[in-house]
Specification:
single chain, Rossmann fold, Helix Hairpins, 7-stranded mixed sheet, 3-stranded antiparallel sheet, binds 3'-O-(N-methylanthraniloyl)guanosine-5'-diphosphate, Ferrous iron transport protein B
Amino acid sequence: MSVKIALAGNPNSGKTTLFNALTGSNQFVGNWPGVTVEKKEGKLKGHKEVVITDLPGIYSLSPYTLEEVVARNYLIQERPDAILNIVDGTNLERNLYLTTQLLELGIPMVIAVNMMDVVNKNGDSIQIKQLAEKLGCPILEISALKATGIKEAAQAALQAATQVSACKVHNFSTQVEEALSAITNRLPQEINENQKRFYAIKLFERDEKILQGNMSAAAFEDIIAKVEKELDDDSESIITNERYIYIGEMIKGCYKKHSKGNLSTS
Ligand code: BGO
């Protein structure tokens, strides 16, 4: 039986370096179906049964770039057994924007915080245990370039792949959560239980590329319009803003920046 692990992360997070270190020369390169975006897969060194799929580098799971659509279609349709999310530790706040969206897919996930050699060299520190607790997901520190911590990260992803339950997800404001529940109640039964939250959030954002079968965007319009009126903003901005506030709060106290000789919290 083969195990599928998807490697996901922002551009420049070190994804290619990690993919090469994990798979060595055991790689197959092609294109994603119907598009000219490169698709790379490889067997995890020492594990013939484990296939790692290198997803395109993306900042979000929104539908605005080909890379985002390719990555999310793979995650929704192929449903890998686990996601290994590589995060640039020198750019934690920005990278966690994608992380929070990946967690909503209901797929077991492990986070590898990369560039730890640079973080340490700068005298900065990340409270990994605390961050893992807040995100509800295992986190490991790695340096893809120096090949430190990468075996442990792959092992953690393999372990996550054998679990049925996904990581926890964060809650939006009460008004948004109520809307998400109402949208979820109107979703067709065919949608996998674990994926319902992701679909509900995307439909709330009026992301029409997520519509499946005979689903119609109009079916959710009353729910969305009510929240937009209450919060005086458009639904996509509501989600984006609440996500950034959540991330900002979360990393407060988890990231210590050593700047110009002074220890300060950012
Ligand atoms: C160049 N530590 C450090 N210090 N650097 C890392 C690490 C790490 O843990 N991991 C990756 N890098 P990609 P995406 C480069 O190419 O894997 C570096 O887009 C350079 N190139 O070596 O390509 C990695 O696949 C000239 O850096 O990322 C690469 O996600 C000068 O981060 C860059 C300096 O890694 C991006 C760096 C000609």
